[in-house]
Amino acid sequence: MAGSSSSNQPLNAGNLVSAAVKIYRSRLNQFLGVAFTATLWSLPPFLAAVVLGIVAGLAIPVLSNSGFLIGLLSIILSIVWVVFSCFCLAKNLMNTALISRLAQGELTSQPETIQEARGYLNPKTWKFLRTWVFAGLFLVGASLVINIAAGIVIALVQGVFGANSPLTGLVSLVLNLAALVVAYWLQARVFISEVPLALEDNINSMDSVRRSWNLSKGFEGQIILMIVIATLITLPLVILAFIPFILTLVANLSLFAQGGIPSPEGSIALLVSLVISILLVLFLGIFIIPFWQSLKALLYFNLRGRREGSDLQLRDNPPS
Amino acid sequence: MRYFNRVSIATPESVELEFTLAGIGSRVLALTIDYSILTLVILAFWIIWFVVAIGLLSSLESIGRDYSSAPLWLIAIFILLNFALWNGYFIWFETLWQGQTPGKRWVKIRVVRDDGRSVRLMQATLRSLLRPIDDFCFIGALFILFSKREKRIGDWAAGTIVIQESQGDQKSAIVLSDNAQTLAAQLPDIADLNQLIPDDYAVIREYLQRRTTMTSQAHTEKSMELARQLRSLLAMETTPANTTSDEFLEAVLIAYQHMGDKKQY
């Protein structure tokens, strides 16, 4: 085996991030193209909302004498919009996961072209949406249960010792912190839930989430640490995107501070700057998404090595 | 592919030294740890200073002389000490711990000079004094990301690089069963151990180190797979009776190590 930088040594959190940067840079052009496509797929739902709004606006005066028809039209338009948005989201998720697949090709020295990889993932488009929904529902559900449980305990302690007791404060602090830790811990377990779906054959959405869950077992701390480092590295770009909004907010702060209603111009400026910031986030996301997807691919590759020994292979034939 | 940048340094004695650079991830992690420690230290200092200053001022007041300029002095010293603490932390540790701070030590990275020698007071001071500029708008991070030798401004000025510490064998020791020890003694008679090359040994060793973190299913499958492959490599017709595949792999590891020991003498 080669030295410390050989590709089959398990990596720690810091090295995972550094290595992800390296992969990111090695195929940047390709990744940016795919990330651009993924980002484009997040725009149609907004445009569709505008178009459907116009359709509704035109239709309602015509149908003004029938409340039933207006109701029916709104329901139909809403359903059309939801289905269309789900489709766009699925396409967005598929393209995002595509980057992980391309990164994995780079890691295993079996690179694929974008067309090959997309051809492989296209039939799985809806599965990516389902994986996203499963993982999301799981996280939301779990954190709901944890917070309710913590809330009940805090309420009980409060009932016994009173709201102002230092013990109540301490218990509440500890439990809230614990809930936060558990939330991160769960997040770490489903962090790569779309990656198995993008890379493995014959796998469905539930299996993919389950794979993420099983592979990450015992490595939650490392994964959380890795997420923290990666967040710190991508933070400057996100801050950059919000500069227009923050500046406008600061400029208009005096209005809010006086308790007065901001002038129409001020409100419009705020709204416009917010829209600009959101567009900037989407734009900068094109640069950020490939990094995170490279990181996920690398983490998957590493966890497979650690948990399944996927890279441990002996020679097939004895030396001649 | 190679995950990390490397630099090679030719020493005046014509010895080529190769270092693996630390990488942005490890450096951010080390800095986060150092800043957390430093924040706690400075917070503690503030509390102590506040208590001492209040005590001092009230006792000066009780003496009754004119000490009206005392608060100003206290603030001046306070600012000076803050500056000293902030910079002193990095200078002190990097000088005394040969290029490491607590954060760097934990992450296993180290600052060295461009020629591979360890940093001294001069380099540590320059790195520390330029740190605020590097931190401002994350300029340092950008420099590390986009320069070939991963140097932030402080590194350019001081002529230093940050490298990974050579990874000695710090992994947990492999637990070997008694059965494997017995089997290892018999192996040279029933298997052709000379067929093994260091690569094979490395794979077996890596497996035995990693098996405790592997899923039970993968553990079983990988163990069987490696044992089967190894059996054919060693030209064995059957695996010894009453041994698990893990024990067999452990035995091969021990036998190979013994073989190496014998060769040395």
Please characterize this protein's 3D structure.
The complex is a heterodimer of chains A (320) and B (265). Chain A has helices spanning 13-26, 28-40, 44-62, 67-107, 114-121, 125-161, 166-189, 195-199, 205-215, 220-251, 253-257, 264-308. Chain A is mainly alpha-helical and 320 residues long. Chain A has one domain. Chain A starts with 12 loop residues before the first helix and ends in a 12-residue tail after the last helix. Chain B has 2 domains: 6-164, no CATH class; 178-264, no CATH class. Chain B is 62% helix and 8% strand. In chain B, the strands form 2 sheets. Chain B has a two-stranded antiparallel ribbon with strand order 1-2. Chain B has a two-stranded antiparallel sheet with strand order 3-4. The longest helix of chain B is centred in the N-terminal third of the chain and has 40 residues, at 24-63. The model of chain B has no long low-confidence stretch (mean pLDDT 88). Classes of the chains: A mainly alpha (320), B mainly alpha (265). Chains A and B meet through helix 1, helix 10 and helix 12 of A and helix 1, helix 9 and helix 10 of B.
Describe what is shown at a glance:
Chain A has 320 residues and is mostly helical.
